[in-house]
Amino acid sequence: MTALVVTSNFRRVASMQWVLWGSELSPFTLKVAALCRYSGLDVRLMPADGGRIANLRALARVTAARRGWSRPAYPILTELDELPLVPYLIDPRRNLLFDSSAIADWLDNRPAATHPKLLPTSGAVRFAARLIDEYFDEMGLYFAHHHRWVVSASTNDAGQRLAHEFRTLVPAPFRRRFAERFAARQVRRLPYLFSVAAAEPERYDLAFHRRPPGRAGFPPTHELLEEGFRRVLDRVEPVLRAQPFLLGERFSVADASLYGQIAMNLSDPMAAAMIELRAAATCARRP
Question: What is the pLDDT of residues 103-130, one digit of tens each?
């Protein structure tokens, strides 16, 4: 596996510190982790690197915010907003931040910040960084989810890895079922993320709950997503062969967003093989 794959590069400490509550299966967790590393934050990934008590405390904090019992510290919610599932950044005082792009903005503007801006100050370059960030947060997610649950459907072990991350919160007898239910849920979500199978899902040599679903009245999109992802790699690769980052000599939120989506699939064997063959320089990058 290439250097882009995150296999717990978060420092393990006993005391409360900055906590990233999320899963390494999530491209947005990987994105926030890259933002935090660049910003010099000492961040602990939980629940993967947490003990039972610490994980229960962090889960209680996240649950309270999601149920409206407390308010996130940043960004400010409006009546039209809803809290996403993951990731959340929790500061040493247990204030909760969410939304990966908003966290980049917050990291740039916090009083203790000493790093060069994640969002460049130049108007044109700042716009480009925002545009690339938004693109990968949206289209990149469609590509990554499709390549995990369709392209690597027969070889990925995402469910088992999530069960391992939650091992302190899910009793051992229930972890296999936890993994299976997660995988089935992610497969059911494929059409929601615009990955729609042809009308003959039985052509996939998979257990029924792992077969990519179609959607009545909606054309199949698998070939479109795979071709779209190949085009992205073909355009990013020469840029990263010529310069260290997407926008030049400095890391930015655009690189973190690209990294999250690409690194997600580098732990999915069949998708990873395609990416490594097509975009070696991109694979070699690790924020």
Answer: 999 999 988 778 889 999 889 999 999 9
Q: How far apart are CA 93 and CA 240, in angstroms?
A: 39
Count CA atoms closer than 13 A to 132's CA, side-chain side.
Answer: 26
Cα(46)–Cα(65) distance, integer angstroms: 17
The correct CATH number of 18-109 out of 3.90.226.10, 3.40.605.10, 3.30.450.20, 3.40.30.10 is: 3.40.30.10
Confidence at residue 8, expressed as pLDDT on a 0 to 100 scale = 38
Topology, domain 123-284: Glutathione S-transferase Yfyf (Class Pi); Chain A, domain 2 (1.20.1050)
Closest CA to 22 of 39, 6, 46, 40: 46
Can you tell me which residue has the tokens 């990966």?
Answer: 100
DSSP state of 140: I
Q: Is 0.85 surpassed by the pTM of this model?
A: yes
Residue 110, token pair as written in the block: 């916090």
Residue 262 in tokens = 């690409």
